[in-house]
Write a structure and sequence with these properties.
The complex is a heterodimer of chains A (85) and B (502).
Chain A lengths: L4 H15 L4 H5 L15 H15 L14 H12 L1
Helix pairs in contact in A: 1-3, 1-4
Chain B lengths: L5 H8 L12 H11 L4 E5 L2 E4 H17 L5 E5 L4 H12 L3 E4 L6 H11 L3 E4 L8 H6 L4 E4 L18 E7 L7 E6 H12 L9 E4 L6 H13 L3 E4 L6 H8 L3 E4 L1 H14 L10 E4 L6 H9 L3 E8 L4 E5 L11 E3 L4 E5 L2 E5 L6 E3 L7 E2 L2 E10 L4 E7 L4 E2 L5 E2 L1 H9 L4 E10 L5 E9 L1 H4 L7 H14 L9 E4 L20
Parallel strand pairs in B: 1-10, 3-4, 3-5, 4-7, 5-6, 9-10, 9-11, 11-12, 12-13, 25-26
Antiparallel strand pairs in B: 1-2, 7-8, 8-18, 13-14, 14-15, 15-21, 16-17, 17-20, 19-20, 20-21, 22-23, 24-25
Helix pairs in contact in B: 2-3, 3-4, 7-8
The chains are: A mainly alpha (85), B alpha/beta (502).
Chain lengths: 85, 502
């Protein structure tokens, strides 16, 4: 059964939580509009973590996009959705 | 005092110690070592392997390219991590030039400014960075532009260089944060390479995987040059997003990492229940930022020795290394043999063969005193000679990625807006403990009054964001706050700096 956007969002939250369990309260509030940099404070290395973990969890490759093109959680969700479709 | 640690390093380095010898210049080192390791793989990049012999031939051909264009003096390299970087760097340096290694992300104005600041006669670029050479091409006809991919049929011999000749210029914020270059002689770089090999057992014929930028002293000297010196194979990762897939095929035995990358790999390994680096990796050299003790301990559980060290751009990388740090939590190790040091009011002062010849592009009269380089780092040393960093005098913010942020440099850019009276860039922390760069500004009332009936704060933030977005990604602030009152000031009216993450 294909994943819907909510499933994708929940899996992304799991990925973020696994990197920083102490941020549970902040990550719980993450939505499509959450900015990865200003909202979550992700550094360039945190972004690498997010991408690599997302590739593992969803079985996809971020092979045609630069990290700078991903600004919000929604951007990541859109990319995943496009790859899974 | 002179660090008398040779015997300790001999013990820690093991059998390899006898193979560590010095050369006067990089040209001499490359001439001898490339022949010694001729049939071994030197570089793997973009699906191709290059032996030391092949690399030596390509370097000799590129010397022909440079010589045919009359290149001499200072050569700026604007080349991302690649085989062509290695080839062009070695060709320039062995031809007696000083290679100024520019970060490949610089925009065209910065490239122009840095070339002028360093007095570059030549700018070598890659296809990927050609766009950033446009201003130099237009406004600096005296600077020769050369593509790093060019080649020639003829081979040109290395020049007769001296140890005191300039080898490289590496960009740094130094002790004040103003951008400039640290000029390192051949002698300094050679000593930096030797220091890299001390204290690491089995340092020869390893397999390195490069993920740090070659424009950074840690990537250039500790990774690339140490690898070539010691007959290692070095895989150049094209895109760090692929580093673990690359590691699975290349199977590195040693990595040079900043703590943030080491930590990221550890977290991923825990999440997915397997060592992301693969079982070949045995050694991590970790530095350029504070190394948490738990990283050493967690990697030890995975059978990987993580060696923290301490170094500066001004010292051609390593000043101290940590062969057996596990018993010395928090230490950055023993100062390398022959290095002169003294501790003045808790600040570490240094002299030695590996120290730079000075800054290029910016006078720093306070950087030296009586011939000693004042590091700006506050230290203590225990009874066994192990060094501990206890703080920093300088205002530089060192991100967990190892990148240096100069608040003064960024503030000058934000203060260029008429709407801004003063500003402060600092490292802040969100509720979950993640660190990020933040900016607070005090508006200039005489200018904001002219804005009329609009949302003044929104306008200020909009203008600041335009500047922010024009900065390299790692320099961008993640949060902007418009203050309603001035900053707290010292008696001399300097801003009292926030220390939220210290």
């Amino acid at each position: 059964m294909p994943m819907n956007r909510n499933d994708i969002l929940e899996k992304l939250k799991e990925i973020l939580l696994s990197a920083d369990e102490s941020s549970r309260d902040v990550i719980h509030l993450v939505n499509e509009n959450t900015n990865l940099h200003t909202g979550l404070g992700l550094s360039s290395v945190n972004m690498l973590y997010l991408i690599i973990a997302t590739e593992e969890v969803f079985g996809i490759y971020f092979d045609d996009i630069g990290l700078n093109e991903l600004q919000t959680v929604g951007d990541v969700m859109n990319y995943i959705e496009g790859k899974l479709s | 005092m002179i660090a008398n640690t040779l015997e300790q390093y001999r013990n820690y380095t093991g059998e390899c110690f006898s193979r560590i010898k010095s050369y006067d210049t990089i040209a001499q080192m490359w001439e001898e070592r490339s022949k010694e390791y001729a049939q071994l793989v030197a570089i793997e990049y973009d699906g191709k392997s290059y032996t030391y012999a092949q690399l030596a031939e390509d370097v000799a051909k590129y010397r022909t390219v440079l010589k045919s264009k009359g290149v001499s003096g200072r050569v700026a390299l604007l080349i991302p991590n690649s085989y062509d970087f290695v080839k062009a760097f070695l060709a320039a340096v062995t031809l007696g030039c000083t290679a100024a290694v520019l970060p490949a992300h610089l925009d065209e104005k910065s490239v122009f400014g840095v070339c002028r600041m360093f007095g570059a006669s030549t700018l070598v670029y890659a296809d990927a960075t050609e766009g950033a050479t446009a201003l130099v091409a237009k406004a600096a006809p005296d600077i020769t532009l050369i593509n790093a991919a060019e080649t020639a049929d003829e081979l040109t011999e290395a020049a007769d260089c001296k140890g005191s000749d300039g080898c490289t210029i590496i960009m740094t914020g130094g002790t004040t944060g103003k951008p400039k270059g640290a000029l390192l002689s051949n002698t300094a770089v050679m000593q930096g390479i030797i220091n890299s090999c001390l204290g690491v057992p089995g340092t020869f014929e390893q397999r390195y995987m490069l993920v740090l930028p070659l424009s950074h002293v840690f990537g250039l000297i500790r990774n690339l040059l140490a690898s070539l010196y010691s007959g290692c194979a070095m895989y150049i990762c094209r895109d760090n997003k692929n580093m673990f897939r690359d590691a699975a095929t290349f199977r590195p035995t040693i990595m040079v990492l900043v703590p943030a990358l080491a930590e990221m790999a550890l977290t991923l390994s825990k999440k997915f229940g397997r060592n992301m680096w693969g079982d070949s990796l045995k050694t991590i050299i970790c530095g350029a930022a504070n190394v948490p003790q738990y990283l050493i301990e967690e990697y030890a559980k995975m059978g990987i020795s993580l060696y923290p060290g301490y170094g500066l751009t001004e010292s051609a990388n390593l000043v101290s290394g940590n062969p057996e740090n596990i018993n010395k939590p928090g230490s950055v190790g023993l100062i390398f043999p022959g290095m002169e040091y003294k501790i003045v009011n808790d600040e570490l002062w240094l002299k030695g063969k590996n120290m730079m010849d000075g800054y290029v592009g910016c006078e720093e009269p306070d950087a030296y005193e009586d011939g000693w380089f004042k590091t700006g780092d506050l230290v203590r040393m225990d009874e066994d000679g192990f060094l501990y960093i206890t703080g920093r005098i300088k205002e530089i913010i060192v991100l967990s990625t190892g990148e240096n942020i100069s608040p003064a440099e960024l503030e000058a850019k934000f203060n260029s807006l008429n709407l801004i009276q003063d500003s402060q860039v600092f490292e802040d922390m969100n509720d979950s403990g993640n660190r990020f760069l933040a900016l607070e500004v005090v508006p200039r009332a005489t200018e904001t009054a002219k804005l009329g009936d609009i949302d003044v704060n929104a306008k200020i933030i909009e203008e600041l964001q335009k500047i922010n977005q024009s900065l390299p990604t790692f320099q961008r602030v993640a949060k902007i706050t418009v203050r309603t009152s001035d900053f707290e000031r010292t008696p001399s009216m300097k801003i009292v700096r926030y220390k939220k993450c210290q």
